[in-house]
Amino acid sequence: MSLDTWIAIFVSTVVAATPLIYAALGELVTEKAGVLNLGVEGMMLVGAVVGFIVGVNSGSLVLGYLAAMLAGVLMSLVFGVLTITLQANQVATGLALTLFGAGLSAFVGRSYAGQPIDGADALHIPLLSDLPVVGALLFQFNALVYGSIALFFAVQWFLSRSHAGLRLRAIGEAPSVSHAIGHPVQKTRYRAVMFGGACSGIAGAYLSTALTPMWVEGMSSGRGWIALALVVFATWKPLRVLLGAYLFGGVTVLQLYAQGFGLTVPSEFLSMLPYAATIVVLVIICRDPKTILLNQPASLGKGFHPDA
Which positions, given as ranges, span the membrane (predicted)? Predict the structure, then answer.
């Protein structure tokens, strides 16, 4: 293969991994607070359709992204009220949120189906973008790609260095103890859930305005579930989430290039490779329970009420 082909594969991998990074890092923070939100797929779809509609009608992708984040936050608040305040089962509520998001996005976006939009352009960084090879590899992406890297560093610092992040982790480990010493458990969990919703919303908007600049019903195609699997794959560590997203992004891209390389494999088999890889990785990791329990928040998926 030529150098240009390798560069194209690398760039496509980074682009394909970007929505996974946003969604998985948002879910990571949510789960670190002890809340399991399985509604990532639904929040991504709502973010995708809202971001697309606002972007088309306003002519501003920035407004579209802000609207997508707000839509994700509102969806997450529905989940938060049901699970944090009303103590509903988190697994069942998350699944319901995904189904609700899929239906709502299909209904709202039905008149926009197949309509194109001027997608996010790659940033041109003077001097750096014009460098041979390196410029094409590192400095030819749109702002949201660089934003995903910045989000990784922010989450890494927040969880490991900030007082608020350490308090959030303590709440995820022992909410009763945290409440006893005066930490606002429910308020912190609400904030974590809202952050996860905002990240899922922007991940969805990236799909409809950058990765595939048009709205198509169900266009997340299971990426929300892959993001959830990534958190477990990464054993709740931000760096592993980043690397895992690029791994799955690479698998997604390679199945697109495979037929061009002359592989006579049915396209349906190649299309299922990213999801098959997700299952295989989870099976390998779960063979050793200690690997999962090492970093899993002790109260993950368990409700807490201060009056209980």
Answer: 6-23, 35-56, 62-84, 91-113, 133-159, 192-216, 222-239, 246-263, 269-286
